[in-house]
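Hi everyone,

Forwarding the result from last night's run.
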Amino acid sequence: MRKSSWGFILSLGVSTPFVAWADAKSVAGVAPADPALQRFVQTVVDANPRVKAARAALEARRSDRDAASRPLYNPEINADYERTHETRFWVGLEYTVDWGGKGRAHSALAESERRLAETAVTLVRRGVAIDLLNGLAAHRAGVERDSLAARRQRLMYDFAELAQRRFETGDVSQVELDLARLASVEARINRATAAASLAGAKQAVRVFVPDLPPSQWPSLPSSLPDLPDGADVQSLIEALPEVIAAGRRADAAEALIELRRRERRPDPTLSLGGGSEAGDRLTVVELSIPLPLLNRFGDEVDAAAAERRGAQQAREDVARRARARLISATERYRLAQTAWEDWRKTGQASLERQQEQLRRLWKAGDIGTTDYLVHAGQTLDLRESALDLRETLWGAWLEWLSASGQVDAWIGLATDR
């Protein structure tokens, strides 16, 4: 069973996109995807439940940030009234001062988490877009494989019919006739297998557009561009959403350290009150400060520091993996593109001539039925190998777009703000 990896290529192949390497954040001069494909992908992505869930999480983080920007403590009012043989009442106001700057640290941490959630939306949207493009590309591959299987079925059926007529005239033997019939049966089996694979490919797209028939799915072109030379690999890697997300996790860990440090600082509570007791007016000012004697909260700082170190190392690991992925994707695409161009220039035309010549030779009796079936089968297998090669090429192209961080820009997916 062949892999359907050309979903990747779909988004790229559609309109010969050309991505500029010089600046990962700039796509100036890039030929955009076909507008119909862009609208289709954008609409599907924006309506996807995974994307909506990520946006809801982002809204929650925005609310958390807004909440963290407000004062940490509220003032408290105290009142007391007592009446026995004499009347006593008291009214006071109490307020804890954020002396250590905990509120600012809370706000900084909440902002870091909001920015991380923002990047998560970008990652989810890109993931949904890639899954959708994979499905569309797999569908196209399935359609072409089904078409090739139908062609094989017709060819083998016609061959079996012709072999039957020649058997009746004594030109072929019973063994050769049986071979022709078996080849026809095998072709029908291949057609059924291809149709089943096509149904599975359709399912991958229907997950995203359950109510839209395949006839309304956007088409994919087969031409793909060369990769630009002189790539600024580091700029591309630094702009990748997964690398940015890893960096923002490290930023959030840094903000958590600062919060833990400020939480170690005790906040004083100031009380101001007044009242009357036994006819005497009272005014009291009180100041209370917690004494961190039994617990100095140093372990919390150490734990946060350890989390920061882990986040920094994770960020480095993500960047290294991204670099390796980009280099590998570049090499894979160029190799596949070279092979595909060779096929288009020489192999495709030669195959057409060979198939027609085989049929003439068999009709003329210059080759036997067994030889014809062997060579015809090889010809059809080579066509299927060409489909595999193009599928690999498309997969490599879309993989490069993903590895270089250009899928969103090419398909027109804007980052949520």
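The chain is about 65% helix and 10% strand.

Cheers,
N.
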